[in-house]
Amino acid sequence: MQRVIERILNLLAYLLTVGRPVTADEIRNTVAGYDQDTDAAFHRTFERDKDLLRRLGVPLRLDFTDRWEVEEGYVVSPQEYAMPDPGLTDEERVALTIALRMVRLGGEAPGEAGLFKLGGLGSGGADGPFAAHLDATPDLPVVFTAVVERRLLSFDYRDTARSVRPLGLVHRNGHWYLIADLADGGRRAFRVDRMARVEVGERPGAFERPKGFRAGDAVADAPWEAGADDLRVSIAFDPSVAWWARRQLTGSAEVTEADDGGIQVSLPVRSRSALFSWLIGFDDHAEILEPSEVIDAFVAHVSGAST
Description:
Elements: H1 2-18, H2 24-30, H3 39-55, E1 60-64, E2 72-76, H4 78-81, H5 90-102, E3 103-105, H6 113-117, E4 132-134, H7 140-149, E5 153-157, E6 160-172, E7 175-182, E8 187-191, E9 195-200, E10 231-237, H8 239-248, E11 254-257, E12 263-269, H9 272-280, E13 286-290, H10 292-302
Parallel strand pairs: 3-4
Antiparallel strand pairs: 1-2, 5-6, 5-9, 6-7, 7-8, 10-12, 10-13, 11-12
């Protein structure tokens, strides 16, 4: 591992200082660590190193080595590699500090180096209480890079090859979702942990993100809001469970307070099965009021007659 780290650092230092695109052969003959015995062994090693650099967020790209555009070489622009000052306000730095204390990504306590680089003052101890634990997959940084740098993204999803314009990431119900426009039209959400063979395009700025796009609008907030149904369902919750039901409702639900402390809710439903699964958890403390077709389907569901 030490040898790999040294070779990667040598490669990055060379690409940042050489000041021009360099071919793979130049890298092999110049950078320490590429002394493999065969061409095939060198190319396997070099391909792995390029992939690792890109996964680390290094803007490694191909460019022509001369004006005749005959041969391409690798280059890392110091301007693209360096992070510009984002110009954060004091309030924004405080918000980052709070987020650093409250959120864990992939079970790991976040380091404070990033916050220091942004001008933050540190979290005051990363071992304090936190409120959110977000799972992470090995491909999440790669997908994040594609979103931020607006690079095309390709991957396998449920045994189908996909090529997309990645627009945004959103976390819902314990999973990360990529919101992307498909190459052949349409927009879809993909669970990041179900992606395989993820590859990022070479060119940054390969597409424009639609004006006003918000990733959060593309994924349903509640399980019953995703599906093919198109219903409006009214449900009454007893006072004993009203507080719990209210915590799980989304902004699309209309809530009316009852005199006894209960609530009556009108909410959009696109998946009856998901709604029924949720309501069963309330036992007989929740009652569907309308429409009648949903009442009948729920009765059939709990009685075991539903298919």
